[in-house]
């Protein structure tokens, strides 16, 4: 049986020369990703009591979520899935995660530290962040366009998106395109197929 990949590359060399091979291979192996928007500047406190800003993520690919530690509905599953993503890229210093608490009055650094230990947060670039509620809500709703709100009629008194955002090394929110050529924008943190897409797109950006 012929090796058609080898034949194809040989044909490229014959027609274009060796200089064209890396460029053409990259074109077929690396999908184009959409630019959704720039992440606004932020400054919050992590589970270790350290101030974390955009600069701490500069040069890193990272995933963003909005959650709270007392969430009785989707947050536990979201973070179980985030742990799987962490484990996939464990040991890579250019990968990180940012988890913003939407209940900062309760989620102090000490509470976030205990939550991180409970779920198995093990990479230094996973920051669970707390600060002023107004600033966190603005970052979610306007900066990322990921909905969060206080709602006394909901379990846990909050409602929020279960989607993850993917950010590149320059602080730009990125995503793949769907089958119709539209950006998906975000990745469902509860959906197995979306999580697989996210893993692939992280690798692409890295």
Automatic annotation (TrEMBL):
PROSITE patterns: THIOREDOXIN_2. CDD domains: SCO (cd02968). It holds the Pfam family SCO1-SenC. Residues 33-206 form the Thioredoxin domain. It comes from the Bacteria. InterPro entries: SCO1/SenC (IPR003782), Thioredoxin-like_sf (IPR036249), Thioredoxin_domain (IPR013766). Keywords: Copper. Belongs to the SCO1/2 family. This is SCO family protein.
């Amino acid at each position: 049986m012929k090796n058609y990949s080898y034949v194809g590359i040989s044909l490229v060399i014959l027609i274009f020369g060796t200089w064209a091979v890396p460029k053409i291979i990259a074109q077929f192996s690396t999908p184009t990703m959409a630019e959704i928007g720039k992440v606004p500047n932020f400054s919050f406190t992590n589970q270790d009591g350290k101030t974390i800003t955009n600069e701490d993520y500069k040069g890193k690919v990272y995933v963003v979520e909005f959650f709270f530690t007392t969430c009785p509905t989707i947050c536990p599953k979201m973070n179980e899935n985030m742990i799987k993503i962490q484990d996939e890229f464990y040991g890579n210093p250019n990968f990180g995660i940012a988890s913003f608490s939407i209940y900062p009055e309760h989620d102090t650094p000490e509470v976030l530290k205990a939550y991180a230990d409970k779920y198995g947060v093990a990479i230094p670039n996973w920051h669970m962040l707390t600060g002023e509620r107004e600033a966190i809500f603005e970052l979610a709703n306007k900066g990322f366009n990921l909905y969060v709100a206080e709602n006394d009629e909901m379990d846990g008194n909050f409602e929020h998106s279960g989607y993850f955002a993917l950010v590149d090394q320059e602080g730009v929110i990125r995503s793949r395109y769907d089958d119709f050529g539209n950006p998906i924008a975000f990745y469902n943190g509860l959906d197995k197929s979306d999580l697989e897409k996210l893993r692939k797109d992280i690798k692409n950006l890295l």
